[in-house]
Amino acid sequence: MKRNYKKWGFIAGMAILALCIWGFNDDLFQIAKNLDVFASVYKEVNINYVDDINSSKMIKTGVDAMLDGLDPYTEFVPESEIEEYKLHYVSTQYGGIGAGIFTRDGKVFVSDIFEGFPAQKADIRAGDRLVKINNIDLTGKNNDQVSQLLKGSKGASIKLLIRRGDTQPLEKILIRDEIKQPNVTYYGMVEGNMGYIKLDKFLENSAEEVTDALVSIKKNNPNGIILDLRSNGGGILQEAVKIVNLFVPKNVEVVSQKGKIKEKNATYTTQNTALEPNLPLVVLVNGRSASASEIVAGSLQDLDRAVIVGQRSYGKGLVQQTFNLPYNSLVKITIAKYYIPSGRCVQALDYTHRKDDGSVVKVADSMMHEFKTKDGRSVYDGGGVYPDIPVKQDRFANVTQTLVSKLLIFDYATIYRNTHDKIADPPEFHLADADYSDFVKYLADKNYSYTTGTEKLINNLKTEATKEKQFTDIQAEYDALKAKMISSKKNDLQQNKQEIKQVLENEIASRYYYEKGRYETNFKYDKELAQSVKIMQDKSQIVSILKGDGNYKVIGKPQLAMIPKKIEEKENSQDQ
Fold first, then answer.
1. Is there a smaller number of Cβ atoms within 10 Å at the N or the C end of the chain?
2. CA 243 to chain CA mean position, Å
């Protein structure tokens, strides 16, 4: 077996070089010592292990394990993953056809169509099955493999063989285009002549897109602006500062970052005249609003410029910076915490002081500190941005979640689209009762079994009673209760008809009007949006909220909201 001895010498040499450069400071000596140990372990395993070793994979595993003890945002990106990293965290541009895909039972289906791109222009639809790409059979291929086949140079042709329902396969020849997914996924006017902007992410040009949306909205003389940051995981810090600047004057501090390296500490202030400094402003957030979203929402709250509506945000107050490494790889490192104008940091999880088992703890209520907004309202650190007007987030019933997860809503929408040439415009679209009855009939032979919370309790009762040898005594009551539960579940499709119709309408509208259809169909069900409109229709009320008067003043420390275990957010990096 051939060995690359030069590689071992290089790694060991790096450790020696580190000693020469850094000197024999005790901490730096430990660094060099540990590098030498790491190189030696790698060398001995590479020489002596019984089977051949994938060197790149083993090193990445080691690096990942080393970084895993820090925080989820500090990560190593090898050369093989650089392009994917840039697509998710820096830019949203690529060459392709403008369609999302998913696999099921070894087959590939179209999940979404992006309006204005080649797939939509060629009348490819969500629900279509992709059979071949350039004569390559897709059976058994995974999402990544199919995505690579779909992507390519702008202007290059691509041949698709698709199957729609039971019809004969259709051949489509498309010309790939530059696909750019916008940061602003929707903007327009909603009830009460309010301007609405949905910002989905903070990647390149997000501030420019919000500016364009705001300029367009202002032509309608809106009574207020709603900036929707729900489920926005963040992105580039500087874009967040520019967006805040649209609503607050020049030379106002928005955010500062502080870490152990003083040279990397920085304060970001607004640089331009505000585009809209006076109109009432509401920012929508939820538990998946993180990072740059929290900079925007938190700073506008601290500056008493906006009312925050929704649920407590995620709580990510950490700043990352990327550093280039040899061989076209990079490492993204948390270099600082950020602080919004009141002086608070919204970081909710304490990665520095983990438990003995490695688990991460939330910042305790007792460790939260009070800060003051520009006009003296009380706000708190240590747990995200708490809304001025909390709106409880509804949870869909088990039956609805099951119909979605088993793709039965998706599949019915596919059938509906292929049998209905058109529907009403999204704001007016309602699924008729006859259509809902048809959907129920469609489910008759489908498997959508699920377990309710009540059923789990009943099953636990049987388990515990059996352990304690008391089940025989209660079996008659147990069987009766179980029977009633089964009977009740049969009515779930009717008892939860309204919310199931809501999800159906949303999916069906997207087949005709794409992402715009999803938003406009859902507006009539959106409680946070309705609350925002209601607040801004009474200017005295919004002034009262921003002053902390009356019923809207939060008294005492707000309790920490449940923090999701994981969020796929973008990082707020200072160097991009």
1. N
2. 19
